[in-house]
Structures are given as structure tokens and as C-alpha cells.
Amino acid sequence: MKFVISKEELNGLIGHIQNVVTQKATIPILSNILIEASGSELVITATDLTVGVRCRTEAKVFEEGATTLPAKKFAQLIREITAPHIEFSSTSDDVSKITAGSSHFNLHGINKGEFPVLPDMSGAAQFKIKGEKLQDALFRTAFAVSREDHRPILTGVLMSIDNGTVAFIGTDGKRLAKIEQNIDIDESVSGQYVIPLKAVEEILKISGDDDAIVYVMEDKIAIDTNKSTIITKLLSGSYPDVSRVIPEESDISVTLHREELTSLLRQISLFTPDNNHSVRFVFSDGNLQLAINNAEIGTAKVNMPVNYDGEALQVAFNPAFFLDILRHSKDETVNIGLTDAFNPGVITDTSSALCVIMPMRLHEE
Asked: Does the global pTM surpass 0.90?
């Protein structure tokens, strides 16, 4: 195998796949990436046996072939090279020769025959979606998934297909984010597919300019674009019925200026000792006050004008969770629907996304 490629292209390609590589793998080949050259294309593949990523780019190929190299060392070397172009060749004993300007390196690899084959997706149902829409749906929901493994099914994003609609949902039991989109798919296709967070993070790297084709099977899905393919096994188990925690309607609706509320929440969060502490939201005529009284740190009260004109209402929320929701909206304002201090708040903007945040216990001050 022999090819020439720009350092920038190769570095970008490696950057897209190296997070999938298992550095402390019990199977040595999983610490390597597969490098294949054919026609005028270079393909690099990484897998941890759950998530597999294959990225493609153009290269000047002089001799077709394939080999595998240790991902970490190869990435570090390419990153440090200063020459604009890299000449790469490999021998029959899987020693790769890398030439960059006046520098020459030999890096030992493992035969491509030991590298796992990515799963076959033939026969899978499929639908097309704009890359930017897929990215936006996952960006709006992945932040809410659980980072703890005591309920493994909640550590992924649910993709639910039903009646020509796809819904993406993330929740950790204390907050929930959901977004729906119409798709062109046979209406007989339906199912629930829980995508591991690691795979979601890889999907978020795809180009928003590309159309994506999503292939779905019972135990795995794949996302294919012009320059990359991501295949992942799905999390097994029954996802909870989240419809029960999404209020059908709210008695109170308040419009909030997103950036102003974000700033105030950041200020008052300095007075919370940990991520499990609450901030009191006090709604009164034309005003929202955020308040906290912490015996160890001190007290804080901040105010902002809002379109509220009912009886005074107090409800407590986790400020870190509320900030996460605000960060994942793009609108100037968001709307919060409330009923009382004991029922969930529903936060929406002009998109089809909604977030649910559970109230916390109100402590007497």
C-alpha cells in the first residue's frame, strides 16, 4: 500500500475516529485503526465492538492495500508532523513507513485480517434525514441522558419511530428532553432504538451539510453520510414510558429571556454547594426572583422582569439542570409551563423540542 495525503486531511480523519478506540483493550487489535487505500480514496476505521466508525477522504493512491496501526501513537505522530504532505507506505510484514519532508518513521502494525468486520446492515429499514436536523435533534436531547450506570437503559438517547415520525428522547429521571421530526419512511416501520451516548457523540461529529441515511435493525443502527459511516449496537432493555411525566397542559405560561435568565442562574449558582442543591423561583406580578439561602456560603437574590400577573408562585429547580436546558435552546426567549410547586415544569421554544424539569423540595428560609 502506498499513498500521499495532506497532513491536514489525515489529521482530521484520525480526529473523527480516535475517540472510539479502546486504549486499554483486552484484545490488542481494538487499540488499532484500520487504514485502507483503494482507487482514489483513503478509508480509516475504528471500533470497540459496540461502536464502529468509518471515515473516507480523497488521497493520491499509488498502490492499494490495507494495514492497521496503533491509534494513539499514529495520531500523536501525525499531529506533531509539520510538513504539509505525508507519504505513507506499508510492507507485507505490516511495517508502515511514514515520510514527511526530511523526516522518516517506521511504525509497526498488526495484519488487517485480525481487525473486526463491521456489522452487516443489509435488509435494514432506512430513512433519509438532513445531517443538520439529526445533529440538532441529538444536541437537544443527549445532554439529558444519565451519566450513571445504575439504570443502563437511560445512558442512551431513545429514537422512537412510529407512523412516519421519529422522536428523540433523553432523560435521567430528573429531567427530560424530547424533539420530534417527520421522516419519509414506510409507515409500517415502528420501533424503539436506544443509542449509546458514545455513538451519539460520534454522530454529532458528522457534517451538517450532508444528507444522512439512517439504517435501523432490532439490535443495531447505522448512520451513513458522504464521508462517514457510524454503526452501533443498541442498548438492550425496556425504555420507560416517558409520556406519563410530560404534562398535557399547564395552568401557567411564562416567557423568559434566555440569555438574561442564563446570566442570573450562573450568578446564583455560585451560592449552591453542589449540583444537587435547588434555587427558589419566585413568580410575582411582572417579576421573577431567584433566591438561595445557604448556611455555609451565604444568600443571594436576583430579579428579572417577566410576563406573570397571577398569584405569587414559588417553585424550586436544580439550577444546573435549568442551565443545561437553556444552553441547548437557540431562541431569544423560552416558555415555561407551570402548574404548582409539585408538578414538572415544561420548557419550550419555537422549535419542536420540549424539556421537562422536575421540581425540587422547597426549603423554608
From this structure: yes
Cell of 74: 499514529
User: What angle separates helix 71-80 from helix 7-17, to the nearest 10 degrees?
Assistant: 150
Q: Which three cell numbers stand for residue 35?
A: 487504514
Number of H helices, E strands in the chain: 6, 25
Handedness of CA 153, 158, 161, 162 (dihedral sign): positive
- Classified as helix, coil or strand, 78 is helix
Amino acid at 223: I
* Residue of 235, 183, 238 lying closest to 214 (CA atoms): 183
Is the Cβ–Cβ distance between 242 and 169 less than 8 Å? yes
Using CA of residue 247, residue 249, residue 254, residue 259, what is the dihedral sign?
positive
Q: What is the tens place of the pLDDT at every residue in 213-244?
A: 999 999 999 999 999 999 999 999 999 999 99
Residue pair 144/129 in contact by the 8 Å Cβ criterion: no
Residue 356 one-letter amino acid: V
- Nearest alpha-carbon partner for 123 in 189, 70, 43: 189
